[in-house]
Amino acid sequence: METVKYLLNEDRMPTSWYNIAADLPAPPPAVLHPGTKQPIGPDDLAPLFPMGLIMQEVSSEREIEIPDEVQSIYRQWRPSPLYRARRLEQALDTPAKIYYKYEGVSPAGSHKPNTAVAQAYYNKQEGVKRLVTETGAGQWGSSLAFAGALFGLEVLVYMVKVSYNQKPYRRALMEAYGARVVASPSTETNAGRAILAEHPDSTGSLGIAISEAVEIAAQDPDARYALGSVLNHVLLHQTVIGLESLAQLEMAGDYPDIIVGCTGGGSNFAGIAFPFIGAKLRGERDVRVVAVEPAACPSLTRGQYAYDFGDTAGMTPLVKMHTLGHGFVPSGIHAGGLRYHGMAPMVSHLLQLGQFEATNVQQLETFTAGLTFARAEGILPAPEANHAVAGAINEALRCKEAGEAKTILFNLCGHGHFDLQAYTDFQAGKLKDFEYSAEEVAMALAGLPS
After folding, report:
1. Rg of the chain over all Cα atoms, to the nearest angstrom
2. How far apart are alpha carbons 111 and 241 in whole angstroms?
3. 127 φψ region: left (φ > 0), alpha (ψ -120 to 50), beta (else)
4. Full-prediction pTM beyond 0.70?
5. DSSP-derived pairing of the beta strands 154-160 and 180-184
6. Does residue 293 sit in helix, strand or coil?
7. 264, 386 in Cβ contact below 8 A?
8. How confident is the model over 151-181, as pLDDT tens digits?
9. What's the pLDDT score for residue 336?
10. Which residues form the Tryptophan synthase beta chain-like PALP domain (predicted)?
11. Residue in 152, 98, 95, 90 with CA at minimum distance from that of residue 121
């Protein structure tokens, strides 16, 4: 009998998150205060984050224990299944073995609750009453709304306006969990009003939504800001994905030659790849890692490695990352969770160290890949996850051309059940590709802080 899915018992769930900072050959550049341009300390972040998360942000310990209460909630869906994509292999006629870790089994339908639950827990521990955040496609917003409901926290979500209009059911899910959802840019904040004054028809961006959320959180002593990607503690929480995958591949008697992950801010890519990159850094096993991003928002492949703000209004600390410029507003592609101007500093640092390679794909190619996957494996991926699917298919076809039976692992970070309108539009020929000229990229980068 050919095994299709590899399942871990709950007693084999990771009890610690993996911190790749412990294995780096060189530390990442310092985070700078937006006003003084000097390295920031924990106290500088206290108005936005609870100290439990701040200490994780700056930690260099290899393992950070997962609190019992967080583990007990994780057990609602963790460990998530690892699948061998045997039917996709047959459809592609490839000698490659393809595995995918499926995070769509969480209550919110994606990998995002792995950090949302942890962030809600640490905020609740410090007496925080409400959380303020941004969201693109809504996977992060719905995950934080779910976590807020579990811990009795109010949740306010600024949702990028193009996704607010494209994805009403993701918005409805957030509201079902008890969150309030506002289309961004809005008239509720100084940042939002300033954008609308200059661009009344703005479709928004994650950078703008972050500015609004940070502004509100900084003004309310009972509130804190929560971020679904980019920061070290967020990437840390997602490593349960890769840690489980290591154990499941051991069950399969296999180890990946190639790991593929989609990238927007870097959280799900880090979740699947960091434990394997860590093993590589420690000299244990080699692996080739490929990050796949949208051609419409190509921070890794066309951005500049430089200090930049994480938000449009310039209120966040300055971090060194691959960026298209904090004023960059991407086109309204359906992969709303990947429409961010920058990349996680830790992911950016690892790219500079040559630990993985990056590529980009167009929107139409990703939807074609998603339908190919759905018709073989039965799971309809989220538009964001389709970038990883497209990357994995491309690698499998290269194996076919070269006659190489390599093992490919990718993270299917969420399902597309709330994205059916996007698939309808794709099959009706209504979607299109977006490409930025060198001049447009240069213009976006011209606003980088000195």
Report:
1. 20
2. 8
3. left
4. yes
5. parallel
6. strand
7. no
8. 999 999 999 999 899 889 999 999 999 999 9
9. 63
10. 76-414
11. 152
CA–CA distance, 351 with 357 (Å, rounded to integer): 7
Which pLDDT belongs to residue 321? 97
Listed residue (391, 324, 437, 386) closest to 137, CA to CA: 386
Are 19 and 61 in contact by the 8 Å Cβ rule? The answer is yes
Torsion angle, alpha carbons of 353, 388, 260, 276, to 10:
90
Give me the residues paired with residue 357 across strands. 290
Structure tokens at 233: 């503690």
Query: Which class is domain 5-9+67-109+233-445?
Result: alpha beta
Pairing of strands 304-309, 318-323: antiparallel
The H helix count followed by the E strand count for the chain is 19, 15
Report the amino acid identity of residue 269.
F
Please tell me the distance from the alpha carbon of residue 83 to that of residue 89, in angstroms, as a whole number. Answer: 12
pLDDT of residue 439: 83
C-beta separation of 186 from 208 below 8 A: no
With H, G, I as helix, E, B as strand and everything else as coil, classify residue 406: coil
Angle at 292 between CA 227 and CA 392, to 5 degrees: 125
Question: Which of 354, 357, 359 shows the shortest CA–CA distance to 281?
Answer: 354
Distance CA 271, CA 395 (A): 20
